[in-house]
Amino acid sequence: MTAAAVLLAVGLLAGCAREHGSAATTPSSSPIPSGYSEMQKKVAAAESAVARADNDAAADR
Fold it and tell me: What is the full per-residue pLDDT of the chain (61 aa) written as tens digits?
């Protein structure tokens, strides 16, 4: 259940970043939106948290 909550939070962050980020308000000639690398770091951290939660759940069985 924790893994699902983390994935939901990451999805919400990604959706909000697209709507409210500077790339949404200011057109850019760059194909990569501003803040993309920061979002990648957040996704990697969330994936790591999911892996730890899965390991903890497996250890509890």
Answer: 566 676 667 676 666 555 555 545 555 667 888 889 999 999 999 999 999 999 999 988 7
Q: Which two tokens stand for residue 2?
A: 């924790």
Look up the pTM and report it: 0.47
Q: Which two tokens stand for residue 6?
A: 């983390």
Question: Token digits for 5?
Answer: 């909550």
> Any idea where the domains of the chain sit in the sequence?
2-60
| Residue 33 DSSP label | P
Round the CA-based radius of gyration of the chain to a whole number and report it. 15
Who's near 18: CB < 8 A, 6+ residues apart? 24, 33
